[in-house]
Design a protein that fits this description.
The structure is a single chain. About 35% of the residues lie in helices and about 10% in strands. The protein is α+β, with helices and mostly antiparallel strands and about 350 residues long. Strands 1-2-3-4 form a four-stranded antiparallel beta sheet. Strand 3 (about 130-135) and strand 4 (about 140) form a beta hairpin. The protein starts with a helix and ends in a 23-residue tail after the last strand.
């Protein structure tokens, strides 16, 4: 199958699903093992403490000195997630560290026109730079992180990589009220989310899954259990869709994919077993009548946490609230590019 034809089939089958991970090396990508050693020796603990203190000092100073890339895991307060923390176990603790030199090399050399490769470097940053533990000391993988938190965590890693505030992602847009140009800055705090109604969370979310009885809404069907989209599930579905594309299959039901990521609790690592999970979910999906399908579509739309694609600021000229589409003026690769001192080679 020609590359263009393959890409067309892949795009047609995957649709808008966004997630991935470097389970294997892809070209330049060189995966590193996350959390091989859970305990830090005294020297490492001291280094981590010193780095954390330095990061706090530098954030407060708001200086713009050269980039500083350092090592060390830093605790990330759960409160930073806001309401999104409700969708993780209560005893989970999150840690981040600055992006490694190799991860930055991979990120800044990625082909932004290659969706598969771009997805992989997004997940590589999460895999290498985010660690999750629980009260028993277990380390959880990047695959268990909720899909909607990926970009937010990437921005957090970026902020700890460039602790002095250099390499800002800024762009200008025009105020619709007064026609003045306004500067927008992309960072983790600027991201906003659309959440499920509080009453739905309280009634149907049990801390691990959604349990919903359609009969409460006059739909004659058995109760359903739904699981939040995870980075690992997203990647498993993408890998499966890629395999389907390579086999020349073009009849993948994209409507089914919308539900599939919610119907599987934990994807099997074995491709054949995962195929069985997909078939089982597909059989359930096929048995829905029109009324049940409409109800489930409404359920998914109402329990999804949607990251906003817009930033909002107050216009310094007229005081109006102004929104703008998130932009990457110099491309996604610029997120982890350090301050440049050398002359640029060429015009590309």
């Amino acid at each position: 199958m020609a590359r263009k034809e393959y890409d067309d089939v892949l795009e047609e089958q995957i649709g808008s699903i966004g997630s991935e991970e470097p389970t294997e090396s892809l070209g330049k990508l060189r995966p590193e093992v996350l959390g091989q050693r859970s305990e830090l020796d005294p020297e490492e603990k001291q280094r981590m403490k010193e780095f954390n203190e330095r990061a706090v000092r530098e954030f407060k100073k708001h200086t713009t000195t050269d980039a500083s890339i350092s090592d060390g895991w830093i605790p990330l307060e759960r409160s930073a997630f806001g309401k999104r923390s409700l969708f993780y176990p209560n005893d989970w603790e999150f840690f981040i560290r600055p992006a490694t030199v190799q991860a930055i090399k991979n990120w800044t050399s990625v082909d932004e026109e290659n969706a598969e490769e771009l997805n992989k470097v997004f997940n590589e940053i999460i895999r290498i730079c985010v660690k999750v533990t629980d009260s028993k000391g277990n380390v959880h993988t990047w695959q268990e992180i909720n899909s909607w938190d990926r970009f937010w965590l990437i921005l957090k890693v970026r902020e700890y990589t460039f602790v002095t505030g250099e390499s800002k992602i800024e762009y200008t847009d025009t105020c619709e009220n007064c026609d003045e140009d306004i500067t927008f800055t992309l960072n983790s705090d600027s991201l906003t989310y659309e959440f499920p109604d509080d009453e739905l969370i309280e009634k149907y979310w049990d801390g691990e899954k959604w349990y919903i009885d359609p009969q409460e809404y006059d739909v004659p069907a058995a109760p359903v259990t739904l699981y939040t989209p995870k980075l690992g599930k997203d990647q498993a579905i993408i890998d499966w869709a890629i395999a389907q594309a390579r086999m020349g299959k073009k009849d993948l039901d994209e409507g089914f994919i919308k539900f599939l990521v919610w119907m599987i609790s934990k994807p099997s690592r074995d491709p054949q077993n995962f195929e069985s999970q997909v078939r089982q979910a597909k059989n359930t999906y096929k048995n829905w009548d029109i009324e049940m399908h409409s109800f489930m579509n409404d359920v998914i739309n109402n329990i999804t946490i949607n990251p906003s694609e817009k930033l909002s600021v107050k216009c310094p000229y007229c005081g109006a609230e102004v929104t703008s589409q998130v932009q990457f003026p110099n491309g996604v690769k610029a997120l982890f590019q350090t301050t440049k001192k050398a002359k640029k080679f060429g015009s590309r």
